[in-house]
Every structure is written in structure tokens, then in C-alpha cells.
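// run 5 | inverse folding | seed 20
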């Protein structure tokens, strides 16, 4: 597909958003827009033919070896191909419009070209040209991106720098950020809570041990170092945070940490998926510390209301891009059998399975493409790198509703409205 080189400007007059050339380094509500009142300018006054549409538009961003594909979330049509070198990672920015692209040296912001402006009890919906903007956060080894309570938090593994900004500020250009340093650089994660508390992991280049919490003034109010190999985070109902350990999880709630131990001496939980609709967090589960690539067939369900951990045997393996949650808090796992396994988080029972793609095998190298599961509202998106396809699944109906061939082999996937 021919790459279009375009320039776009946001609804709130962002200047200089430029698509880089090859070789250069939640529902559809736009949190950056005013909560009421008319949009700041009529669509005809905005550059690049931005136009008002009748319904909210969803967007997907897929990485491939050499760049990014921006897709329409309904038709799965490729709207834009953006060439960009290096191994790329993508995460929703938290405003329903932008996606954060992790490159080798920066978190860079992509404008998907679809946004909504709240207006009283309804919203105005707009579309424009997708583009990789010049908004960037330079860093050393970009790590986790976390969105919660209107804040976006970037963690730099190489420096331990935590950079925080209101998610909605991206529509105004380069946002001002709050910077807090971890105790030492490490592969970590940080979460800003609604009361401005900040949970941040503990570790160094060799080991990771736990997490601490700072209050709004930066004073440490809680700490736990009972979490060897701490990795990943998820949010459960009641603004409860769960981080994974090599022997269980740490749960932070109401100013205190609680350790929930795995049933095995080594029972690693490193990737989790949470839902504000459920007190239960879905996690992976690995038990062999010596194998280079373990292909687990059990997942973990961590109940933050009862501080208990349950294992569910799927009978089929999965990977770190296989975990997601449905609109009602359903636990979803994309198995190597090509099906989405829908688990009732309250009972741990597999309620149903939804066939989507053919059977597949996890590659040895974690950076190589493998099927990926992403959920936006009631729709689950599944990539099939072997076939060069993407599928949209209606979770309520339990069936594939749209499929499309892609011009490149997809790797990572993010939904702007996720």
C-alpha cells in the first residue's frame, strides 16, 4: 500500500503535527475537550478536511516490521500506513484518540484521526487524517504505559523516570509533565490513582523486589518488598491495584499492601488484565523458573475482595498477548487453539469458547508476531499473523462479524478507545 505523507492538526488547534518519513526515529470520549459547550472551531475551519460524523468512530493501530497500520475499527479498512524503523510497541494514550508508540528512544504520540467532543448530554464526533505527531517523550528504554483516572503514566526502564500528564492534554500539543524518579532504574511500572497517590515498583538492573506508594505530596505511605520479580499491573474494582510476583501477587488497596501467595513455591504471575466491573484480576501463571519459554495452560484469577487466588486449567496454552476482559468483566484468553476462552471470573468456569482463527504456536522470540487479543467495548479484535488477517468478534453473539486481510504482517495491536 502506498504510504501517504500528511500533516494534521487537532480539534483544539495543535500546531505542527508531522508524519515522519521512513527511517526517522476508552469509549470514544475525548478527555481533552471541554465538558460542555460548542467545539472551539467548526470542522470546516480545521485543516485537512476534518469533518463531523453522526456516530463515534473507533480506531486500531497495528505494528509491523517497518511501521504502523491505522485501521477503521468497524470495517477494518487500512486508513493509513506509517513507515517507522525499529521494534515498535503501542498502547492507548487514555483519551480515546491517541496511541503511544514506544520506539527505541522515545514514547511518541500517534493521532488516530477520530475523536469526540462532549456537548451537554451528547457529543460531537469528528474524523480527520491519522498521523504520527511530533509530540514525543524522550527516554532510555521506554517501558510500561498505564492509563487510569484521567492520567497517563510513562515508565522509563533505563533511568527509572516516571513521567505523568493528564491524558486529555495531548489534544493541545506537548503536555507539561510531572516527573518522579524510582529509587533505581529497573524494568518497572507506575500507576497514578484518583486521589493522586502513585504506586511505583522497586528494583534495580539485577533484581525487582516489590512496590511502594507515595501520597499526593510525594511522601511514602506504604511499601512491600515481598514481591520477587515484580512485573506488570492491573486495576480491579474499587481502585485496587494488583502487581505480579514470582510467587503470587501484591494487592494495594485502602493504603496498604496485601500479599497473595501462589500455591506453588515458584508460581509466576507477570501479565494481568483487570476490569473496573470485577474484583477479580486475570493473570498468567508459570511454574518453571529454568525453562527459556514456558507454554502454560493454566491462568490465575486473583480475587481482591477475598484475597484468594484460583487457577483455571484451559487445556491449551496462550501467550502474554492473550489476556483481556469483556465489557461485563468476563475473563478472556486467546488460546493457541485459535479460540477465545470466556471465563466467568466469579466461578472460574469456562462459560464458552469462540473459534476465531486456526491453531498456532508461540514463537521462541517474544518480539516476533503472534496472535494478539484486544477488546474495545463489546468487540474483541484478534490478529492472525500467519494469514496476514485481523478479525472482529462480537462477544455477545460469540461469533466473528468482520474479517480483513492486511498488507503487512501484524504484531502488536492497540485500540484508541480501549
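// decoded
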Amino acid at each position: 500500500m502506498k504510504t501517504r505523507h500528511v500533516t494534521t492538526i487537532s480539534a483544539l488547534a495543535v500546531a505542527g503535527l508531522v508524519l515522519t518519513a521512513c527511517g526517522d526515529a476508552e469509549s470514544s470520549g475525548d478527555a481533552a475537550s471541554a465538558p460542555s459547550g460548542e467545539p472551539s472551531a467548526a470542522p470546516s475551519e480545521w485543516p485537512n478536511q476534518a469533518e463531523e460524523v453522526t456516530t463515534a468512530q473507533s480506531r486500531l493501530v497495528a505494528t509491523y516490521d517497518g511501521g504502523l497500520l491505522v485501521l477503521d475499527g468497524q470495517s477494518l479498512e487500512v486508513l493509513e500506513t506509517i513507515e517507522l524503523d525499529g521494534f515498535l510497541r503501542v498502547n492507548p494514550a487514555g483519551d480515546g484518540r491517541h496511541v503511544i508508540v514506544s520506539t527505541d528512544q522515545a514514547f511518541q504520540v500517534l493521532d488516530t484521526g477520530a475523536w469526540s467532543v462532549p456537548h451537554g448530554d451528547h457529543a460531537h464526533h469528528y474524523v480527520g487524517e491519522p498521523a504520527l505527531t511530533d509530540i514525543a517523550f524522550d527516554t532510555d528504554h521506554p517501558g510500561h504505559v498505564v492509563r487510569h483516572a484521567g492520567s497517563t503514566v510513562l515508565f522509563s526502564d533505563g533511568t527509572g523516570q516516571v513521567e505523568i500528564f493528564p491524558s486529555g492534554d495531548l489534544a493541545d500539543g506537548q503536555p507539561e509533565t510531572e516527573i518522579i524518579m524510582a529509587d533505581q532504574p529497573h524494568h518497572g511500572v507506575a500507576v497514578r490513582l484518583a486521589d493522586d497517590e502513585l504506586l511505583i515498583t522497586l528494583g534495580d538492573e539485577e533484581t525487582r523486589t516489590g512496590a511502594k506508594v507515595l501520597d499526593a505530596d510525594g511522601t511514602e505511605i506504604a511499601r512491600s518488598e515481598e514481591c520477587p520479580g515484580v512485573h506488570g499491573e492491573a486495576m480491579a474494582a474499587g481502585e485496587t491495584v494488583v502487581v505480579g510476583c514470582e510467587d503470587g501477587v501484591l494487592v494495594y488497596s485502602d493504603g496498604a499492601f496485601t500479599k497473595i501467595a501462589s500455591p506453588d513455591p515458584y508460581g509466576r504471575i507477570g501479565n494481568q488484565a483487570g476490569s473496573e466491573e470485577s474484583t477479580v484480576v486475570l493473570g498468567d501463571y508459570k511454574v518453571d523458573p529454568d525453562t527459556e519459554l514456558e507454554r502454560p495452560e493454566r491462568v490465575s484469577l486473583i480475587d481482591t475482595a477475598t484475597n484468594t487466588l484460583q487457577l483455571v486449567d484451559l487445556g491449551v496454552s496462550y501467550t502474554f498477548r492473550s489476556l483481556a476482559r469483556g465489557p461485563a468483566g468476563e475473563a478472556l484468553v486467546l488460546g493457541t487453539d485459535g479460540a477465545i476462552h470466556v471465563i466467568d471470573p466469579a466461578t472460574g468456569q469456562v462459560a464458552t469458547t469462540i473459534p476465531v482463527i486456526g491453531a498456532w504456536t508461540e514463537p521462541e522470540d517474544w518480539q516476533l508476531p503472534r496472535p494478539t487479543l484486544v477488546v474495545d467495548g463489546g468487540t474483541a479484535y484478534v490478529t492472525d499473523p500467519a494469514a496476514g488477517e485481523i478479525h472482529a468478534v462480537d462477544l455477545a453473539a460469540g461469533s466473528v462479524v468482520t474479517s480483513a486481510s492486511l498488507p503487512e504482517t501484524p504484531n502488536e495491536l492497540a485500540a484508541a478507545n480501549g
